[in-house]
Amino acid sequence: MQGGASVSTGIGERVPRKEDKRLLNGQAKFVGDLKFPRQWEAAFVRSPIAHGRIRAVTKPDDATDRVFTAADLADVLPIQAESSLPGYKGSDFYPLARDKVRFVGECVAICIAPTRAEAEDIAERVALDLDPLPPVMDAILARDPDSTLLHENWGDNLFVTTHFNEGIDAARAAADVVIEREYSTARQCMTPMEGKGTLSYWDDKTGQLVVYTSTQVPHLIRSGISQFLQIDQGEVRVIAPDVGGGFGYKCVLQPEELSVSWVARKTGRPIRWTEDRREHLVAGANTRQHHYRITAYADKRGRILGVDADITVDVGAFSVWPFTACLEAAQAGGNLPGPYAFPGYRCTTYSVATNKPPFTPYRGVARPGVCFAMELTIDAVARAVDREPAEVRKENLVPAEAMPFTNVTKKFYDSGDYPGSVTEAQKAIDLAAFRPRQEQALAEGKYLGIGFSTFTEQSAHGTKVFAAWGLPLVPGYEQAMVKLTPSGSVEVRSGNHSFGQGLETTLAQVASEWLTVPVERIAVTMGDTGMTPYSTGAYASRGMVMAGGAVSKAAEVLAGRIRKHAAHLLQCQPDDVTLKDGHAHAGAASVSFADIGRAWYLRPDQLPDDVDTAGLEVTEGYKPEIDSGVFTYATHAAIVEVDIDTGHVEILDYVVFEDCGRRVNPMILEGQTYGGAAQGIGTALFEEVLYDANGQPLTSTLADYILPGPAELPNFRLSHKETLSPYTRHGMKGVGEGGAIAPGGAIINAVNDALRPLEVELNQIPATPARVLGAVLKARAAEGTAS
Amino acid sequence: MKPVAFSHTLPDSVVEATRLAAGGVDVKIIGGGQSLGPMLNLRLARPEALVDVAALNDLRRIADTGSHVEIGATIRHAEIEDGAVPDPIPGMLRHVAGGIAYRAVRNKGTIGGSLCHADPAADWVSAMTALDATLVIAGQDGSTREVPMTRFMEGAYRTSLEPGEVLCTIRIPKCGADARWGYYKICRKVGEFADAIAATVIDPERRYCRVVFGAASGAPLVARDLALSLAETGSAAPQDEVKDALLTLDPALDSIKCHQLAVAYARCLAEAMPND
Lengths: 787, 276
Description:
The complex is a heterodimer of chains A (787) and B (276). Chain A is globular. Chain A has a seven-stranded mixed beta sheet. A six-stranded mixed beta sheet of chain A has the order 7-15-14-13-8-29, sandwiched between helices. Chain A has a four-stranded mixed beta sheet with strand order 18-26-27-28, sandwiched between helices. Chain A starts with 19 loop residues before the first helix and ends with a helix. By secondary structure, chain A is α+β, with helices and mostly antiparallel strands. Helices cover 28% and strands 24% of the residues of chain A. Chain A contains 19 helices and 29 strands. Chain B is of the alpha+beta class and 276 residues long. Chain B has three domains: 46 residues, Uridine Diphospho-n-acetylenolpyruvylglucosamine Reductase, domain 2, CATH 3.30.43.10; 117 residues, 2-Layer Sandwich (Uridine Diphospho-n-acetylenolpyruvylglucosamine Reductase, domain 3), CATH 3.30.465; 93 residues, 2-Layer Sandwich (Enolase-like, domain 1). Helix content of chain B is 33%, strand content 25%. Chain B is built from eleven helices and 14 strands. In chain B, the strands form four sheets. A five-stranded antiparallel beta sheet of chain B has the order 4-5-10-6-7. Chain B has a four-stranded antiparallel beta sheet with strand order 11-12-13-14, sandwiched between helices. A three-stranded parallel beta sheet of chain B has the order 1-3-2, covered by helices on one side. Chain B is globular and about 55 Å long. Chain B starts with 6 loop residues before the first strand and ends with a helix.
């Protein structure tokens, strides 16, 4: 690579994050920090019931001009996220409910006032006359033909049902061992530190609606606002300022973004809404809830021949734009076989409408669920054939020598050594030493267990994959601009966005790799549709591969142009020029980038007449050589102690062995994995949205919705290897989601390993103390009855 | 999550505080605000007026009378954790205070505020019951009355405080040199409200033994039979007997909660009598 070796801030370096100065010193600007003249605040009237017909929404007499309802927003289209999957049934998600309310927390009216407290005062006085309907809260029961319907015109409660079958009959016929299990995962909230927030105003100078919003996907939000408010794209500018975490929650168009924008345009005032924690925990309870019924067929050694699965996704009331109500089930059905090579697979997925907030893809998208189900199945098979689960796991994984490998669901695994990741995790956690330790502990009345969990993380998947999932919006080429300034510094512009992943630093590192300018002198601008080239944004672990690839390509072209300009100034051939430390060198002579920039911008008289008129500003588009994505993979392993008297699970050790191709910034990568794994531990042991029989949420504060804290997290031990992807620039693979995928499998496998002497097996997460204790007490009662 | 509009008054004296607090039904007394604050933001509490007693010097006194330790109602958890209060029994107050929520909460929250809030899962209601504390309460006319902790809390979030009354002092009997204590709580995670609390104080010098269970459905449960058995045998009753005693005290306990309380009791006694 040109000149890269001499630069200390290029690819592979542990460069401290550029954005941390403002983020860690309280200088960041989130939506909540913005203040415009004449700005008012918004509060929403939200449905207090899970399901009902709206008879009337009555504004307070003294505030009719401060309250807006569906009747006012008559020219706003409902959010429709259509899927092209066969049999898909669409939903009309009005930004303010019309005719019916379908979940507690659904927006019914928007109220504005100079302060949020006053807006809430008004909201309290808006009278809702609702005719309650029976709530549909259980996705399995909702499939019953006699169930109450959310969308009456559908005839049932199914957004879509998908079927897949290849070779399951052969697997069944050949099986020595048959394992049947049911698994379930709880509904969760994503709980970013900064909730959602949006602020809109009409700019008369540009004739634009300017929308500051806390989003991962500013260009998509621009398209969405234009589409559903029915105004031209040219009249919408979306700016994502500093964003305090997204995790997928902020990758969809939110109804509040439409209502706030409509009211801002209507009233001529800047209007802001800031989601509070209760709103998030109620109306944002929108992810992770799956149910699995699985039959696995295996031979005597535990080699899986086939898996038969029914997967039910509790989608909630509506289809979110643009990722639809079907993405989760499509990912679940396609990814359940995961890193395993078995040939037989039958799967039916049900995407079920319920009276809950609409399902939104969360870090890992379906894979935390399928990984949990598959990894517990592997361990159940291993127990059935009485072998070490890690060994059974390795024999079932795609072997390294089979790479590249196309699995039963036609996933194209580009590279890697999956069994090797188990071997490495096994060594790191020292499985061999653990078994005697476990035996000794048991003799002392302590229940220790070990669990493994292996997964693949499809990342930066592109055009064809998203088109096959039936989404209304499909990513194509990612654009980026790289520019040399007259001072010799560099500007990078990307329509992607950074909301905590350190992209501001890692994109600068990619540019630094080509241009030999340190990251301190590389300014990265993202998130503003008025300032950046188009990108569909940050989701699907695509930021580094896609935006990084685009920056790499643009920076490479710019480096070539710099060499050409330098060749003229140095009176040599471009091929004789090398770049190093922000200078162009030819033999003993050199010019600085500042000299080159100055010549182009300020002293063009120094350049020849046949100069490249494109100058020192380059925009390029990029996507990997394959659309099918590049697959990061990892094995997590955990040792736990289960307190059988209280049901508490303590994580004693936790190791991660991961291969994500080329690591651009290993420090940032480690942070990503720590954070993801912490969220995965939340999924495994703590986080659970609960409802009563009437569909009322019982977990509407952080005293009830329990997140893991520092004291509950282990000291993660990470190790890596780099198998470069042959299909991406620099061999990079996406890694943002991976950490969150595996903990459920690793931890619950460890819990079940610990409780094996009691013949207790948990198949539901989170494994709360009450759930673990309940299972232990039940087993003991059964034992008492038996004896 | 913004509160309704309210007035905020800082009285100069306890007498003025009691007068203001008697001003109407919609008056709330606020100390550290660590429980009332969230309830205000959730609009579960909707007072017209807050009377803020956190800065009243009369409520911040600490004394050792020889027979008792007296703690002003607005002494903060963190101050107790840091040892600002004399020990009625070595180490117990500091241990309990240090286990309340998080340091940020302890820096603001007050012992009196916690007692008056009367959350069944809070620490002080159980610990003060175990220590047989007496509460000194000021009335409007400058008078005071004393209520033992066992009669102060009447149920979940309910106390015997009358409108216009202000809790001033918590008076704790001092224990003898060979007294022992145990305090064990089971929580989902560090800093969370407890799922189960067991507290024991054994003071042979005063012939005092008490066993208390917290985080049940209402006021802490005082298990007299278990205390008698503990005093007689010097060891824990079998788990089945503990569960029977618990169900006698509170027949509504579910099996998981009952089990957690029994486990907390066994562990509390293991702390109280580590050599047994």
